[in-house]
Amino acid sequence: MANLLTAIRLLLVIPVAMAIVDSSLLANWFLLVLIIIAIATDYFDGKVARALKTASARGMLFDHGTDFIFVTVALFALSTIGLSSILLPLLIIVAFSQYVFDSYYLSKQKQLRMSFLGRWNGIFYFVPTVLVASSRLPVFEQTQAIFNLIIVYFNYALAVSTLASIVDRAIAPLLQKDK
Asked: How would DSSP label each residue in 19-76?
């Protein structure tokens, strides 16, 4: 059941990204609904897995990998319309690769090893898509330029926090050796 929720999010990647790039493909309210479904499935998949006692390292990798794909593709889509620097999705690729490599190979764990900053970045990566979809609703039509400015600056802040997360994860093993 939990993996089904994650799979739903994975199926939303392409329609959400395409609708971000071309606002005429889906009704703007429907784009927002799809993004809310993606966020809800992300919130509930782990809870369902734990409640049903089906939580596993593979399920966690599927969940986090799907989150990575969803937000990275969405942020690439935002970069094509000028609302994100291409730097942010590229940094997310580096950060996620480092997360997987560090967890499985450097730490020699059998599951992903989360960090505080990485976890919060993962949550905040969904925010730009919510802001874009919301800004396109008729009720916010007059303030779309303000939304776009907020989205651009928010994405730059995410790039900085992602870079900080990469540095934090890189130096963490060095700090542990000193103890």
From this structure: HHH-TTSS-HHHHHHHHHHHHHHHHHHHHHHHHTT---HHHHHHHHHHHHHHHHHHHH
Quick: pLDDT tens for 83-135: 999 999 999 999 999 988 888 777 677 777 778 888 899 999 999 999 999 99
Confidence of residue 177 (pLDDT cuts 50, 70, 90): low
pTM comes to 0.91
Q: DSSP class of residue 1? A: -
Q: Give Cβ neighbours of residue 34 (< 8 Å, ≥ 6 apart).
A: 12, 15, 16, 19, 26
Q: What per-residue confidence (pLDDT) applies to 179? A: 55
Q: Compute the radius of gyration of the chain from its Cα atoms.
A: 17
Longest dimension (CA), the chain: 57
Give the domain 2-177 fold.
Four Helix Bundle (Hemerythrin (Met), subunit A) (1.20.120)
Domain positions in the chain = 2-177
The closest alpha carbon to 45, from 21, 23, 65, belongs to 65
Spatial neighbors of 59 by CB under 8 A, at least 6 apart, are 2, 3, 6, 45, 49
